[in-house]
Prior knowledge:
single chain; alpha/beta; TIM Barrel
Amino acid sequence: MNKIIVANLKMNLNYNEALNYGDILRKYNYDNIIVCPSNIHIDLMHKYGVVVGAQDAYYLNKGAYTGEVSFYQLKDLVKYCIIGHSERRTLFNESNEIIKDKIASCFFNKIIPILCIGETKEEYDNKKTFEIVEEQIKDLNISGEIIIAYEPVYSIGTGIIPNDDGIDNVHTYIKKRFKEIYNIDIKVLYGGSVNLDNCKDICNIESVDGLLIGGASIDVNNLIEIYKKVNL
Ligand code: PEP
């Protein structure tokens, strides 16, 4: 089974850069690469045949919410949506409650949520990792496929990565808890400072089903090299 590679392009590419990105990627036609561009580039990536995810959306379907884009509006263009990224949680004050509403809206609109969870450095130092993860995965209303991305907050964009056992223990815990609470088997991706040098070793951890990549995915050729190293 190929490892899933999710590219979170965040707020980076302009229109021409996005065109180039999609154009290069479509020539490879790889399974299991999901690209999450800015909303304004979703349509062009979709037309290029790229498997597309959104980076976030608003939980209500329609209405007077100037500036927002809903899952309902995205549903014919994206297969996935990142939910609860740590930048949304910290910079935009997204609580676990809002995140639950977004997950429910994903299911309603037949979009597969990629739910990001993970502890801060302080929580890690205070040995609260499992408590935080439990808080982030409990009381979800699951009615379809969901993917979890374990992204320790202190790992995002910092070059700091937990050791293999650290990743494996949390991934194994998440899978076990989803089975116990919701009776489903789920895929768990690792995210945080993944690059071409470390991607293979991280993917060799059995409980890692794939990677969520930020910085190292902005260059499409680098993303393709990561995909090849991990999967070919
Ligand atoms: C992310 O923002 O989800 C992420 C994993 O970023 P980076 O790969 O740059 O650490």
